[in-house]
Amino acid sequence: AASKAKDCASLIGRGDIGVGIAALLVPISLSGALLVWHDKIDAWINPHRYAVTGTEVARPVSTYLAKAAEAVAKDPTNLRATIVRYPEKGWPVRITMRGQSRDAGARPRVITVFLDPPTASVLDLMEFRSSFFGFLHVFHENLTIPEYSGRQIVGWVGTGLLTMSLTGLWLWWPRGGGFLRGLRWTRSGRFTINLHHLIGFWISIPLAVVSFTGIYLAIPQTARNAM
């Protein structure tokens, strides 16, 4: 009875912390999930960017670079090519152009030029930070509030998730029994606790890995100092 009471109290405590973290964790996770499917979703939203006439990359890289430079020639930020992304079959050539704004302290401007592989004709221009996926990237990294330590907030949310994942494994481990006993469904008389124990175990390690790497990306200097 004492052991069950301890487990219930721990679950309640973790539930309070979990609800607080979830307010930020859920939207951060959803934005990350959408970013995984970036190209597929962008092609659905903006089909003209991907309306290629063939799959063969038939021109030298200098031709694609020249076409991209011509497309942004009138931009005042003096854009220069920084990345050339050759396509998978059926996708356009993409060239990332980067230029520094004349305004002091302004972030560099980033434009992606979409080119048809066979003809090198320009299909579309996309200013990354003003695009839907640019917004998702910024939200996923710093909640769009970098001036209010948004990046650090994301890092500490990841720290909370990592802590919950590792403490969840400790609470899951069977008392006085073997590892395989922990995989049984009937560890409790309650459906919700059995579901939490079983699903929680299988997702705890991936969640710990994702949260740890996310912490490192969000607050790299703090993470390096800790390591």
Describe the structure.
This protein has 227 residues and is of the alpha+beta class. Helices cover 54% and strands 11% of the residues. The chain is built from seven helices and four strands; from the N terminus they run αααββββαααα. It has a four-stranded antiparallel beta sheet with strand order 1-2-3-4, covered by helices on one side. β3 (109-115) and β4 (122-127) form a beta hairpin. α1 runs antiparallel to α4, α1 (2-36) crosses α5 (150-172) and α6 crosses α7. The longest helix is centred in the N-terminal third of the chain and has 35 residues, at 2-36. It is elongated and about 70 Å long. The two termini are 40 Å apart.
What's the layout of helices and strands?
Blueprint: H1 2-36, H2 38-45, H3 61-71, E1 80-85, E2 93-99, E3 109-115, E4 122-127, H4 132-142, H5 150-172, H6 191-218, H7 220-226
Antiparallel strand pairs: 1-2, 2-3, 3-4
The largest sheet, given as strand count, sense and whether it forms a barrel, is:
4 strands, antiparallel
Low-confidence stretches: none
Radius of gyration: 24 Å
Fraction in beta strands: 5-15%
Shape assignment? elongated
Major beta sheet, strand line-up:
1-2-3-4
Classification by helices and strands: alpha+beta
Distance between the termini: 40 Å
Oligomerization state of this entry? single chain
Number of strands: 4
Query: What's the order of the H and E elements?
Result: HHHEEEEHHHH
Main attributes?
four-stranded antiparallel beta sheet, 4 strands, 227 residues
